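To: structure subgroup
Subject: Chain for Friday's discussion

All,

I'm putting the inputs and outputs inline so they're searchable in the archive.
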Amino acid sequence: MSQSTNPERPGASGEPALRPGGHILADQLKLLGADTVYCVPGESFLGLLDGLYNHQDAIRTVTCRHESGAANMADAYAKLTGKPGICAVTRGPGATNAANGVHTAYQDSSPMILLIGQVARDMVDREAFQEMDYRQVFGQMAKWIAQIDDASRIPEYLSRAWKIAQSGRPGPVVLALPEDMLMDMVAVEDLRATDLAESAPTQGSVAELEELMTFAKRPMMLVGGPSWDAGCAEKALAFAERTGLPVASSFRCQDYVDNDHANYVGVVGIAPSAKLRQRIETEVDLLIVVGSRLGEMTTQGYNLVNIPNPQMKFVHVHPGADELGMVYNPDIGIVSSPNAFFDAVTSIRDGEGKNRWADWRQSQREDYEAFLEPTEVPGRLNMSKVIRHITDSMPNDTVLSNGAGNYTVWAHRFHKHRAYRTQLAPTSGSMGYAVPAAIAAKLHSPERQVISISGDGCFLMTSQELATAKQYDADIIYLVVNNGMYGTIRMHQERNHPDRVIATELHNPDFVAYAASFGIDGERVETTEDFPAALERARGRKGGYLIELIVDREALTPVQTLEQVTQQGRAKLAV
Protein backbone atom coordinates (compact mmCIF):
# COMPACT_ATOMS: atom_id res chain seq x y z
CA MET A 1 0.00 0.00 0.00
CA SER A 2 1.04 3.61 -0.49
CA GLN A 3 1.46 5.85 2.55
CA SER A 4 -1.75 7.75 1.70
CA THR A 5 -3.87 4.61 2.04
CA ASN A 6 -1.94 2.96 4.88
CA PRO A 7 -3.98 2.64 8.09
CA GLU A 8 -2.65 4.83 10.88
CA ARG A 9 -0.11 2.92 12.92
CA PRO A 10 -0.50 3.28 16.69
CA GLY A 11 2.58 4.33 18.62
CA ALA A 12 3.60 3.23 22.07
CA SER A 13 1.00 3.39 24.82
CA GLY A 14 -0.19 6.98 25.33
CA GLU A 15 1.68 8.31 22.30
CA PRO A 16 0.01 9.76 19.16
CA ALA A 17 -0.31 7.43 16.20
CA LEU A 18 1.68 7.88 13.02
CA ARG A 19 -0.45 9.60 10.40
CA PRO A 20 0.12 11.13 6.95
CA GLY A 21 0.09 14.91 6.92
CA GLY A 22 -3.05 15.00 4.79
CA HIS A 23 -4.90 12.88 7.35
CA ILE A 24 -3.68 15.08 10.20
CA LEU A 25 -4.95 18.15 8.36
CA ALA A 26 -8.39 16.62 7.76
CA ASP A 27 -8.52 15.50 11.41
CA GLN A 28 -7.85 19.06 12.61
CA LEU A 29 -10.61 20.45 10.38
CA LYS A 30 -13.06 18.04 11.97
CA LEU A 31 -11.93 18.93 15.49
CA LEU A 32 -12.36 22.62 14.73
CA GLY A 33 -15.94 22.06 13.61
CA ALA A 34 -15.56 22.41 9.84
CA ASP A 35 -18.44 20.61 8.16
CA THR A 36 -17.95 21.59 4.49
CA VAL A 37 -14.96 21.91 2.16
CA TYR A 38 -15.46 23.47 -1.28
CA CYS A 39 -12.86 22.38 -3.79
CA VAL A 40 -11.73 21.73 -7.31
CA PRO A 41 -9.55 18.62 -6.89
CA GLY A 42 -5.88 18.71 -7.83
CA GLU A 43 -2.99 16.29 -7.70
CA SER A 44 -1.06 18.70 -5.47
CA PHE A 45 -3.35 18.04 -2.48
CA LEU A 46 -4.32 14.42 -2.97
CA GLY A 47 -3.09 13.73 0.55
CA LEU A 48 -5.72 16.09 1.98
CA LEU A 49 -8.46 14.59 -0.18
CA ASP A 50 -7.46 11.16 1.10
CA GLY A 51 -7.74 12.49 4.65
CA LEU A 52 -11.19 13.93 3.95
CA TYR A 53 -12.26 10.49 2.74
CA ASN A 54 -12.04 9.36 6.36
CA HIS A 55 -14.46 12.08 7.49
CA GLN A 56 -17.24 11.86 4.93
CA ASP A 57 -19.76 11.39 7.74
CA ALA A 58 -18.83 14.78 9.27
CA ILE A 59 -17.33 16.88 6.48
CA ARG A 60 -19.03 17.27 3.12
CA THR A 61 -16.57 17.79 0.28
CA VAL A 62 -18.30 19.77 -2.46
CA THR A 63 -16.73 19.38 -5.90
CA CYS A 64 -17.01 22.62 -7.86
CA ARG A 65 -16.38 23.39 -11.53
CA HIS A 66 -14.11 26.44 -11.11
CA GLU A 67 -11.99 27.67 -8.23
CA SER A 68 -13.67 31.10 -8.22
CA GLY A 69 -16.96 29.30 -7.67
CA ALA A 70 -15.45 27.25 -4.84
CA ALA A 71 -13.97 30.30 -3.12
CA ASN A 72 -17.19 32.29 -3.45
CA MET A 73 -19.14 29.38 -1.98
CA ALA A 74 -16.72 29.39 0.96
CA ASP A 75 -17.29 33.12 1.42
CA ALA A 76 -21.07 32.70 1.35
CA TYR A 77 -20.82 29.82 3.83
CA ALA A 78 -18.84 32.09 6.16
CA LYS A 79 -21.51 34.78 5.91
CA LEU A 80 -24.23 32.25 6.65
CA THR A 81 -22.56 30.53 9.61
CA GLY A 82 -19.95 32.89 11.03
CA LYS A 83 -17.44 30.02 10.80
CA PRO A 84 -14.47 30.00 8.40
CA GLY A 85 -15.43 28.84 4.94
CA ILE A 86 -12.94 26.19 3.83
CA CYS A 87 -11.76 26.11 0.22
CA ALA A 88 -9.14 23.74 -1.20
CA VAL A 89 -7.51 24.30 -4.60
CA THR A 90 -4.48 23.20 -6.50
CA ARG A 91 -1.34 25.24 -7.10
CA GLY A 92 -0.75 27.90 -9.73
CA PRO A 93 -3.87 28.50 -11.84
CA GLY A 94 -6.06 26.91 -9.18
CA ALA A 95 -4.85 29.42 -6.62
CA THR A 96 -5.11 32.43 -8.91
CA ASN A 97 -8.63 31.41 -9.96
CA ALA A 98 -9.58 31.31 -6.27
CA ALA A 99 -8.15 34.80 -5.69
CA ASN A 100 -11.49 36.32 -6.69
CA GLY A 101 -13.24 34.79 -3.69
CA VAL A 102 -10.33 35.55 -1.37
CA HIS A 103 -10.49 39.23 -2.33
CA THR A 104 -14.23 39.23 -1.66
CA ALA A 105 -13.69 37.60 1.73
CA TYR A 106 -11.11 40.24 2.61
CA GLN A 107 -13.25 43.22 1.63
CA ASP A 108 -16.36 41.66 3.14
CA SER A 109 -14.56 40.65 6.36
CA SER A 110 -15.61 37.01 5.93
CA PRO A 111 -13.60 34.32 7.76
CA MET A 112 -12.09 31.91 5.23
CA ILE A 113 -9.25 29.42 5.06
CA LEU A 114 -7.86 28.75 1.58
CA LEU A 115 -5.80 25.56 1.39
CA ILE A 116 -3.50 25.43 -1.65
CA GLY A 117 -1.57 22.42 -2.86
CA GLN A 118 2.08 23.37 -3.41
CA VAL A 119 5.05 21.88 -5.22
CA ALA A 120 7.20 19.43 -3.30
CA ARG A 121 9.67 21.01 -0.90
CA ASP A 122 12.73 19.80 -2.82
CA MET A 123 11.51 21.66 -5.92
CA VAL A 124 10.95 25.08 -4.36
CA ASP A 125 12.62 28.10 -6.02
CA ARG A 126 13.21 26.28 -9.33
CA GLU A 127 9.99 27.54 -10.93
CA ALA A 128 8.68 24.01 -10.83
CA PHE A 129 5.41 23.12 -12.52
CA GLN A 130 2.84 25.74 -11.46
CA GLU A 131 5.07 26.92 -8.60
CA MET A 132 4.20 30.27 -7.02
CA ASP A 133 5.15 32.10 -3.83
CA TYR A 134 1.73 32.56 -2.24
CA ARG A 135 2.96 35.11 0.25
CA GLN A 136 3.53 37.40 -2.71
CA VAL A 137 0.52 36.27 -4.73
CA PHE A 138 -2.02 36.99 -2.03
CA GLY A 139 -0.18 39.90 -0.40
CA GLN A 140 -2.86 42.37 0.67
CA MET A 141 -5.72 39.93 0.02
CA ALA A 142 -5.35 37.90 3.20
CA LYS A 143 -4.85 38.38 6.94
CA TRP A 144 -2.13 35.73 7.13
CA ILE A 145 -0.32 33.68 4.48
CA ALA A 146 1.92 30.77 5.39
CA GLN A 147 3.34 27.51 4.11
CA ILE A 148 3.36 24.35 6.23
CA ASP A 149 6.70 22.65 5.57
CA ASP A 150 6.62 20.33 8.59
CA ALA A 151 3.67 17.96 8.94
CA SER A 152 4.15 17.82 12.72
CA ARG A 153 3.18 21.51 12.87
CA ILE A 154 -0.15 21.09 11.08
CA PRO A 155 -2.22 21.30 14.30
CA GLU A 156 -0.39 24.48 15.28
CA TYR A 157 -0.94 26.13 11.92
CA LEU A 158 -4.60 25.11 11.67
CA SER A 159 -5.34 26.31 15.20
CA ARG A 160 -3.76 29.67 14.42
CA ALA A 161 -5.47 29.97 11.04
CA TRP A 162 -8.90 29.24 12.55
CA LYS A 163 -8.40 31.94 15.21
CA ILE A 164 -6.94 34.57 12.88
CA ALA A 165 -9.71 34.11 10.31
CA GLN A 166 -12.34 34.92 12.95
CA SER A 167 -10.65 37.32 15.36
CA GLY A 168 -10.70 41.13 15.26
CA ARG A 169 -11.79 42.07 11.79
CA PRO A 170 -12.40 38.60 10.28
CA GLY A 171 -10.97 37.68 6.90
CA PRO A 172 -9.21 35.05 4.79
CA VAL A 173 -6.13 33.05 5.68
CA VAL A 174 -4.06 31.23 3.05
CA LEU A 175 -2.08 28.08 3.80
CA ALA A 176 0.18 26.48 1.18
CA LEU A 177 0.61 22.71 1.48
CA PRO A 178 3.63 21.10 -0.22
CA GLU A 179 2.37 17.87 -1.73
CA ASP A 180 5.16 15.75 -0.21
CA MET A 181 4.49 17.23 3.25
CA LEU A 182 0.93 15.91 3.01
CA MET A 183 2.38 12.39 2.59
CA ASP A 184 4.89 12.55 5.46
CA MET A 185 4.17 10.11 8.30
CA VAL A 186 4.45 11.83 11.68
CA ALA A 187 3.16 11.35 15.21
CA VAL A 188 1.69 14.54 16.61
CA GLU A 189 -0.92 15.49 19.18
CA ASP A 190 -4.18 16.92 17.81
CA LEU A 191 -5.15 20.50 18.52
CA ARG A 192 -7.67 21.37 21.21
CA ALA A 193 -10.51 23.57 19.96
CA THR A 194 -11.05 26.56 22.22
CA ASP A 195 -13.32 29.58 22.15
CA LEU A 196 -12.31 32.86 20.57
CA ALA A 197 -11.34 35.75 22.82
CA GLU A 198 -14.03 38.41 22.42
CA SER A 199 -13.52 42.15 22.72
CA ALA A 200 -16.11 44.17 24.63
CA PRO A 201 -16.84 47.80 25.60
CA THR A 202 -15.57 49.27 28.83
CA GLN A 203 -18.01 50.62 31.38
CA GLY A 204 -16.59 54.06 30.74
CA SER A 205 -17.30 53.95 27.00
CA VAL A 206 -20.88 52.85 27.66
CA ALA A 207 -21.35 55.77 30.06
CA GLU A 208 -19.91 58.17 27.46
CA LEU A 209 -22.28 56.81 24.83
CA GLU A 210 -25.25 57.21 27.14
CA GLU A 211 -24.28 60.82 27.77
CA LEU A 212 -24.05 61.56 24.03
CA MET A 213 -27.47 59.98 23.51
CA THR A 214 -28.94 62.09 26.32
CA PHE A 215 -28.10 65.30 24.50
CA ALA A 216 -28.70 64.09 20.93
CA LYS A 217 -31.65 65.52 19.04
CA ARG A 218 -31.30 63.66 15.72
CA PRO A 219 -29.37 60.42 16.34
CA MET A 220 -29.03 57.42 14.04
CA MET A 221 -27.57 53.93 14.35
CA LEU A 222 -25.93 52.37 11.29
CA VAL A 223 -25.36 48.60 11.35
CA GLY A 224 -23.28 46.27 9.19
CA GLY A 225 -19.90 44.61 8.99
CA PRO A 226 -18.62 41.31 10.40
CA SER A 227 -19.26 39.06 13.40
CA TRP A 228 -23.05 39.26 13.47
CA ASP A 229 -25.54 36.44 13.93
CA ALA A 230 -29.31 36.13 14.24
CA GLY A 231 -29.17 36.71 17.99
CA CYS A 232 -27.11 39.85 17.50
CA ALA A 233 -29.67 41.15 15.00
CA GLU A 234 -32.39 40.70 17.61
CA LYS A 235 -30.29 42.54 20.20
CA ALA A 236 -29.74 45.43 17.79
CA LEU A 237 -33.47 45.89 17.26
CA ALA A 238 -34.13 45.55 20.99
CA PHE A 239 -31.62 48.36 21.65
CA ALA A 240 -33.25 50.50 18.97
CA GLU A 241 -36.73 49.84 20.35
CA ARG A 242 -35.68 50.56 23.92
CA THR A 243 -33.96 53.83 23.09
CA GLY A 244 -36.02 54.97 20.11
CA LEU A 245 -33.06 55.08 17.70
CA PRO A 246 -33.71 54.98 13.95
CA VAL A 247 -31.63 52.22 12.33
CA ALA A 248 -30.08 52.20 8.86
CA SER A 249 -28.01 49.40 7.30
CA SER A 250 -24.76 49.68 5.40
CA PHE A 251 -24.12 48.50 1.84
CA ARG A 252 -25.37 44.95 1.30
CA CYS A 253 -26.14 44.42 4.98
CA GLN A 254 -29.88 45.06 4.69
CA ASP A 255 -30.74 41.76 6.35
CA TYR A 256 -29.11 42.71 9.67
CA VAL A 257 -32.41 44.04 10.98
CA ASP A 258 -36.02 43.34 10.04
CA ASN A 259 -36.88 45.83 7.29
CA ASP A 260 -40.51 45.73 8.42
CA HIS A 261 -39.62 47.08 11.84
CA ALA A 262 -40.79 50.61 12.64
CA ASN A 263 -37.25 51.69 13.58
CA TYR A 264 -35.70 50.65 10.25
CA VAL A 265 -35.18 53.62 7.91
CA GLY A 266 -33.28 52.22 4.91
CA VAL A 267 -29.98 51.19 3.43
CA VAL A 268 -26.98 53.46 2.90
CA GLY A 269 -25.38 51.98 -0.20
CA ILE A 270 -25.37 52.51 -3.96
CA ALA A 271 -28.19 54.83 -5.02
CA PRO A 272 -29.72 55.31 -1.55
CA SER A 273 -32.76 57.41 -0.82
CA ALA A 274 -31.81 61.03 -1.46
CA LYS A 275 -33.62 62.03 1.71
CA LEU A 276 -31.72 59.53 3.84
CA ARG A 277 -28.42 60.70 2.40
CA GLN A 278 -29.32 64.32 3.03
CA ARG A 279 -30.26 63.60 6.63
CA ILE A 280 -26.90 61.99 7.33
CA GLU A 281 -24.99 64.75 5.58
CA THR A 282 -26.76 67.70 7.19
CA GLU A 283 -29.09 66.69 10.05
CA VAL A 284 -27.79 63.73 12.06
CA ASP A 285 -26.06 65.01 15.21
CA LEU A 286 -25.05 61.59 16.60
CA LEU A 287 -24.06 58.67 14.38
CA ILE A 288 -23.56 55.32 16.12
CA VAL A 289 -21.90 52.88 13.71
CA VAL A 290 -21.91 49.25 14.85
CA GLY A 291 -19.76 46.91 12.77
CA SER A 292 -19.45 48.76 9.48
CA ARG A 293 -16.07 50.02 8.32
CA LEU A 294 -17.80 52.87 6.47
CA GLY A 295 -16.25 51.92 3.15
CA GLU A 296 -16.51 53.66 -0.21
CA MET A 297 -19.94 52.36 -1.20
CA THR A 298 -21.60 53.09 2.15
CA THR A 299 -20.13 56.60 2.31
CA GLN A 300 -20.95 57.51 -1.29
CA GLY A 301 -17.31 57.73 -2.31
CA TYR A 302 -16.19 58.99 1.12
CA ASN A 303 -18.41 62.06 0.77
CA LEU A 304 -21.17 61.24 3.26
CA VAL A 305 -19.17 61.78 6.45
CA ASN A 306 -16.40 64.38 6.74
CA ILE A 307 -12.79 63.14 6.88
CA PRO A 308 -11.08 62.95 9.31
CA ASN A 309 -13.48 64.75 11.66
CA PRO A 310 -17.14 63.80 11.10
CA GLN A 311 -19.69 66.60 11.03
CA MET A 312 -21.66 64.93 13.81
CA LYS A 313 -20.79 63.26 17.10
CA PHE A 314 -19.44 59.93 15.96
CA VAL A 315 -19.34 56.62 17.84
CA HIS A 316 -17.62 53.75 16.05
CA VAL A 317 -17.94 50.15 17.27
CA HIS A 318 -15.82 47.55 15.48
CA PRO A 319 -14.12 44.27 16.49
CA GLY A 320 -10.91 45.32 14.72
CA ALA A 321 -8.97 47.99 16.62
CA ASP A 322 -7.14 49.06 13.45
CA GLU A 323 -10.42 50.12 11.84
CA LEU A 324 -11.12 52.76 14.49
CA GLY A 325 -9.69 56.06 13.32
CA MET A 326 -8.37 54.60 10.06
CA VAL A 327 -10.43 57.11 8.07
CA TYR A 328 -12.88 58.71 10.50
CA ASN A 329 -11.84 60.07 13.87
CA PRO A 330 -14.45 58.88 16.40
CA ASP A 331 -15.55 60.76 19.49
CA ILE A 332 -15.87 57.33 21.08
CA GLY A 333 -14.05 54.37 19.58
CA ILE A 334 -15.13 51.02 20.97
CA VAL A 335 -13.20 47.84 20.19
CA SER A 336 -15.95 45.26 20.46
CA SER A 337 -17.86 42.58 18.65
CA PRO A 338 -21.43 43.67 17.87
CA ASN A 339 -22.79 40.98 20.21
CA ALA A 340 -20.72 42.14 23.15
CA PHE A 341 -21.60 45.76 22.44
CA PHE A 342 -25.35 45.16 22.51
CA ASP A 343 -24.95 43.06 25.67
CA ALA A 344 -23.06 45.93 27.31
CA VAL A 345 -25.60 48.65 26.45
CA THR A 346 -28.62 46.93 28.00
CA SER A 347 -28.20 49.41 30.86
CA ILE A 348 -29.03 52.27 28.51
CA ARG A 349 -32.76 52.82 28.73
CA ASP A 350 -35.11 55.06 26.83
CA GLY A 351 -35.46 57.88 29.36
CA GLU A 352 -37.12 60.58 27.30
CA GLY A 353 -35.31 59.57 24.12
CA LYS A 354 -37.90 57.20 22.68
CA ASN A 355 -40.59 59.87 22.77
CA ARG A 356 -38.24 62.77 22.06
CA TRP A 357 -37.06 61.17 18.80
CA ALA A 358 -40.44 59.80 17.69
CA ASP A 359 -41.11 62.39 14.99
CA TRP A 360 -37.55 62.19 13.71
CA ARG A 361 -37.75 58.42 13.45
CA GLN A 362 -41.27 58.30 11.99
CA SER A 363 -40.51 60.79 9.22
CA GLN A 364 -37.57 58.65 8.10
CA ARG A 365 -39.67 55.52 8.20
CA GLU A 366 -42.25 57.20 5.97
CA ASP A 367 -39.48 58.20 3.57
CA TYR A 368 -38.29 54.59 3.44
CA GLU A 369 -41.78 53.23 2.73
CA ALA A 370 -42.23 55.77 -0.08
CA PHE A 371 -38.83 54.79 -1.53
CA LEU A 372 -40.08 51.18 -1.81
CA GLU A 373 -42.86 52.09 -4.21
CA PRO A 374 -42.20 50.74 -7.73
CA THR A 375 -41.18 53.28 -10.35
CA GLU A 376 -42.29 53.36 -13.98
CA VAL A 377 -39.64 52.43 -16.52
CA PRO A 378 -39.46 51.78 -20.28
CA GLY A 379 -40.31 48.33 -21.56
CA ARG A 380 -42.81 45.59 -20.88
CA LEU A 381 -41.07 44.14 -17.82
CA ASN A 382 -40.60 46.31 -14.74
CA MET A 383 -37.96 44.95 -12.36
CA SER A 384 -39.22 47.03 -9.45
CA LYS A 385 -42.56 45.21 -9.62
CA VAL A 386 -40.84 41.84 -10.06
CA ILE A 387 -38.84 42.40 -6.88
CA ARG A 388 -41.86 43.63 -4.95
CA HIS A 389 -43.72 40.47 -5.95
CA ILE A 390 -40.85 38.39 -4.58
CA THR A 391 -41.11 40.26 -1.28
CA ASP A 392 -44.87 39.85 -1.11
CA SER A 393 -45.07 36.18 -2.15
CA MET A 394 -41.95 34.39 -0.88
CA PRO A 395 -41.31 33.16 2.70
CA ASN A 396 -39.61 35.64 5.03
CA ASP A 397 -36.49 33.47 5.28
CA THR A 398 -35.95 33.30 1.50
CA VAL A 399 -32.30 33.92 0.63
CA LEU A 400 -31.52 36.33 -2.23
CA SER A 401 -28.01 36.28 -3.66
CA ASN A 402 -26.58 38.62 -6.26
CA GLY A 403 -23.30 39.66 -7.79
CA ALA A 404 -22.57 43.12 -9.18
CA GLY A 405 -24.16 45.33 -11.80
CA ASN A 406 -26.99 47.79 -12.29
CA TYR A 407 -29.53 45.00 -11.92
CA THR A 408 -28.65 44.76 -8.21
CA VAL A 409 -30.06 48.23 -7.54
CA TRP A 410 -33.59 46.89 -8.12
CA ALA A 411 -33.18 44.14 -5.54
CA HIS A 412 -31.50 46.41 -2.99
CA ARG A 413 -34.09 49.15 -3.31
CA PHE A 414 -37.38 47.28 -3.65
CA HIS A 415 -36.95 44.11 -1.57
CA LYS A 416 -37.62 43.94 2.16
CA HIS A 417 -35.35 41.61 4.13
CA ARG A 418 -37.22 40.32 7.14
CA ALA A 419 -34.76 37.79 8.58
CA TYR A 420 -31.03 37.71 9.24
CA ARG A 421 -28.88 36.28 6.48
CA THR A 422 -31.39 36.48 3.69
CA GLN A 423 -29.01 38.67 1.66
CA LEU A 424 -25.84 37.22 0.17
CA ALA A 425 -24.03 39.87 -1.82
CA PRO A 426 -20.37 40.92 -2.11
CA THR A 427 -19.48 44.35 -0.75
CA SER A 428 -16.38 43.90 -2.91
CA GLY A 429 -18.62 44.39 -5.96
CA SER A 430 -17.49 41.14 -7.56
CA MET A 431 -19.40 39.83 -10.54
CA GLY A 432 -20.28 36.13 -10.69
CA TYR A 433 -21.08 35.82 -6.98
CA ALA A 434 -24.80 35.03 -7.11
CA VAL A 435 -24.79 31.44 -8.40
CA PRO A 436 -22.03 30.06 -6.12
CA ALA A 437 -23.48 31.88 -3.09
CA ALA A 438 -26.94 30.48 -3.80
CA ILE A 439 -25.52 26.96 -3.98
CA ALA A 440 -23.76 27.40 -0.64
CA ALA A 441 -27.00 28.69 0.89
CA LYS A 442 -29.12 25.84 -0.42
CA LEU A 443 -26.65 23.15 0.62
CA HIS A 444 -26.43 24.68 4.09
CA SER A 445 -30.19 25.21 4.51
CA PRO A 446 -32.03 22.95 2.04
CA GLU A 447 -35.37 23.74 3.66
CA ARG A 448 -35.17 27.42 2.67
CA GLN A 449 -36.07 28.97 -0.66
CA VAL A 450 -33.02 30.43 -2.42
CA ILE A 451 -33.12 32.87 -5.34
CA SER A 452 -30.01 33.75 -7.34
CA ILE A 453 -30.32 37.07 -9.18
CA SER A 454 -27.76 37.81 -11.90
CA GLY A 455 -27.35 40.09 -14.83
CA ASP A 456 -26.66 38.47 -18.19
CA GLY A 457 -22.97 39.39 -17.94
CA CYS A 458 -22.69 38.44 -14.27
CA PHE A 459 -24.39 35.06 -14.72
CA LEU A 460 -22.02 33.70 -17.34
CA MET A 461 -18.97 34.31 -15.17
CA THR A 462 -19.82 31.38 -12.88
CA SER A 463 -22.75 29.67 -14.58
CA GLN A 464 -20.76 26.45 -14.93
CA GLU A 465 -21.61 25.93 -11.26
CA LEU A 466 -25.12 24.96 -12.38
CA ALA A 467 -23.48 21.56 -12.76
CA THR A 468 -22.49 21.67 -9.08
CA ALA A 469 -26.02 22.61 -8.07
CA LYS A 470 -27.44 19.74 -10.10
CA GLN A 471 -24.91 17.25 -8.75
CA TYR A 472 -25.84 18.06 -5.14
CA ASP A 473 -29.60 18.47 -5.69
CA ALA A 474 -29.62 22.19 -4.85
CA ASP A 475 -33.06 23.34 -6.00
CA ILE A 476 -32.40 27.01 -6.68
CA ILE A 477 -34.44 29.61 -8.54
CA TYR A 478 -32.17 31.48 -10.96
CA LEU A 479 -33.24 34.89 -12.27
CA VAL A 480 -31.17 36.16 -15.19
CA VAL A 481 -31.83 39.82 -15.98
CA ASN A 482 -31.02 40.15 -19.67
CA ASN A 483 -30.53 43.55 -21.29
CA GLY A 484 -27.78 42.50 -23.69
CA MET A 485 -25.00 44.65 -22.25
CA TYR A 486 -22.69 45.28 -19.33
CA GLY A 487 -25.15 47.82 -17.97
CA THR A 488 -23.07 49.50 -15.27
CA ILE A 489 -20.07 50.01 -17.53
CA ARG A 490 -22.31 51.25 -20.33
CA MET A 491 -23.84 53.76 -17.90
CA HIS A 492 -20.42 55.15 -16.95
CA GLN A 493 -19.33 55.00 -20.58
CA GLU A 494 -22.25 57.17 -21.71
CA ARG A 495 -21.76 59.62 -18.83
CA ASN A 496 -18.09 60.11 -19.60
CA HIS A 497 -17.76 59.24 -23.31
CA PRO A 498 -21.26 59.58 -24.80
CA ASP A 499 -21.96 58.04 -28.22
CA ARG A 500 -18.64 56.14 -28.18
CA VAL A 501 -19.88 52.66 -27.32
CA ILE A 502 -17.20 49.96 -27.24
CA ALA A 503 -16.75 46.64 -25.40
CA THR A 504 -20.06 46.76 -23.51
CA GLU A 505 -22.37 44.96 -25.98
CA LEU A 506 -23.09 41.30 -25.25
CA HIS A 507 -24.02 38.40 -27.49
CA ASN A 508 -25.87 36.02 -25.20
CA PRO A 509 -26.89 32.38 -25.47
CA ASP A 510 -30.44 31.16 -25.05
CA PHE A 511 -30.30 31.05 -21.24
CA VAL A 512 -33.28 28.70 -20.94
CA ALA A 513 -31.69 26.22 -23.34
CA TYR A 514 -28.38 26.66 -21.53
CA ALA A 515 -30.00 25.71 -18.21
CA ALA A 516 -31.71 22.77 -19.88
CA SER A 517 -28.33 21.41 -20.90
CA PHE A 518 -27.64 20.92 -17.17
CA GLY A 519 -31.03 19.30 -16.65
CA ILE A 520 -32.55 22.46 -15.17
CA ASP A 521 -35.96 23.60 -16.39
CA GLY A 522 -36.79 27.21 -17.12
CA GLU A 523 -38.63 29.77 -19.19
CA ARG A 524 -38.33 33.22 -20.67
CA VAL A 525 -40.47 36.03 -19.24
CA GLU A 526 -40.96 39.24 -21.20
CA THR A 527 -43.75 41.02 -19.29
CA THR A 528 -44.30 41.98 -15.67
CA GLU A 529 -47.68 40.27 -15.69
CA ASP A 530 -46.16 36.90 -16.62
CA PHE A 531 -43.67 36.81 -13.76
CA PRO A 532 -45.92 35.71 -10.83
CA ALA A 533 -47.01 32.52 -12.58
CA ALA A 534 -43.41 31.78 -13.63
CA LEU A 535 -42.20 32.22 -10.06
CA GLU A 536 -44.91 29.87 -8.81
CA ARG A 537 -43.82 27.24 -11.34
CA ALA A 538 -40.22 27.71 -10.24
CA ARG A 539 -41.08 27.22 -6.56
CA GLY A 540 -42.64 23.85 -7.24
CA ARG A 541 -39.97 22.45 -9.55
CA LYS A 542 -37.41 19.96 -8.31
CA GLY A 543 -33.93 20.32 -9.70
CA GLY A 544 -33.96 24.12 -9.86
CA TYR A 545 -35.54 26.53 -12.31
CA LEU A 546 -34.20 29.39 -14.43
CA ILE A 547 -36.27 32.43 -15.39
CA GLU A 548 -34.77 34.66 -18.05
CA LEU A 549 -36.13 38.19 -17.63
CA ILE A 550 -36.03 40.26 -20.80
CA VAL A 551 -35.71 43.92 -19.85
CA ASP A 552 -35.51 47.01 -22.03
CA ARG A 553 -31.97 48.35 -22.07
CA GLU A 554 -33.44 51.84 -21.67
CA ALA A 555 -34.54 50.78 -18.17
CA LEU A 556 -31.03 51.39 -16.86
CA THR A 557 -31.98 52.30 -13.27
CA PRO A 558 -35.27 52.83 -11.42
CA VAL A 559 -35.04 56.57 -12.09
CA GLN A 560 -32.92 57.08 -15.21
CA THR A 561 -33.04 55.77 -18.77
CA LEU A 562 -30.04 55.00 -20.95
CA GLU A 563 -30.94 57.93 -23.22
CA GLN A 564 -31.05 60.28 -20.25
CA VAL A 565 -27.59 59.13 -19.18
CA THR A 566 -26.30 59.74 -22.71
CA GLN A 567 -27.83 63.23 -22.71
CA GLN A 568 -26.18 63.85 -19.35
CA GLY A 569 -22.82 62.92 -20.82
CA ARG A 570 -23.34 65.12 -23.88
CA ALA A 571 -24.25 68.07 -21.68
CA LYS A 572 -21.11 67.58 -19.61
CA LEU A 573 -18.95 67.60 -22.72
CA ALA A 574 -20.68 70.70 -24.03
CA VAL A 575 -19.70 72.77 -20.99
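Points worth raising on Friday:
The two ends are 78 Å apart (CA to CA).
Confidence is low (pLDDT under 50) at residues 1-7.

D.
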